[in-house]
Fold this protein.
Amino acid sequence: MTPATYRKVCIAALVAVCLIVVTGASVRLTGSGLGCADWPNCNNSKFIDVSTTHGAVEQINRLFTGVVMIAVIAAVLGAVLRRPKRRDLTRLAILIAFGVPMQGLVGAVVVLSDLNPFANQQHFLLSMVLVALATVLVARSGEPDGGERRPTVSAATAQHVRAITVLTALALVSGTFVTGAGPHAGDEKAKRFDVAISTVARIHSITVLATIGVAILLLWRLRTAHADRAVLDNPLTTWMVVAVAQAAVGYTQYFSGVPAVLVGIHVALATALWLATIQLRLATSSVSAAVPVLLPAHPGAAAPASSA
């Protein structure tokens, strides 16, 4: 398999890993979390049961997990067949392939615990880990083989980007507490975190605004760091656009009664923001193509004499 073909396989795996986050959210937002009350069977009599709307929604999401598994297995096999073969790509692909069945086990805990909000929280956060790994895999698969990784920005700028990455992760985690306290549990009888949604929403809002504030500070610093700005201009602009859109949707959904459609958009944007965050972090270093060393045709051969 050529490097170009393998990169396409990796992109397909990344798309699948991102889509499963949205389909999983649709289960919760349509109240279909217990549409299949058992696992791995849909219920105690059928492995697949689409006789009800809730059951069909949950079943489709479970079956799509199989599509994701096929995509990540293709990434593993592609890493083995790729020439030249690279250990870093193989390791990343195996980690992702291991994470998908782990996600299925967490999903089983979610169902068997009657949609416990803590289990639901881990379900989403594990998805974000897989999105991060798949994003790194796509980026690494497009890098030259055998080169040396070097920083592309100053140490201060790289540290600033790391701060944005950490704060974005905290914003995602705080957002899961809002979800666990909110109205869309996946079922009317599901447990909720014993905390007022207004309280966790304020905490989440503070982390989001702090993250955007740190990103604005980076934009301000890059005014005079022209070399760093040239490297980070595109990924940082993308991050800012998605972050502002995510914040706008978040405030709109909160003050409009948390409609399911807006929550679904919010989840999709959260996934996109995390992907953009990883891409921003990856931009702080790159691998340059290996420079071939030219050796004389015969060991010990003298260099040709220059003509007068």
Residues 1-144 form one domain. Residues 104 and 210 are 34 Å apart (CA to CA). The chain has eight helices and two strands. Confidence is low (pLDDT under 50) at residues 301-308.
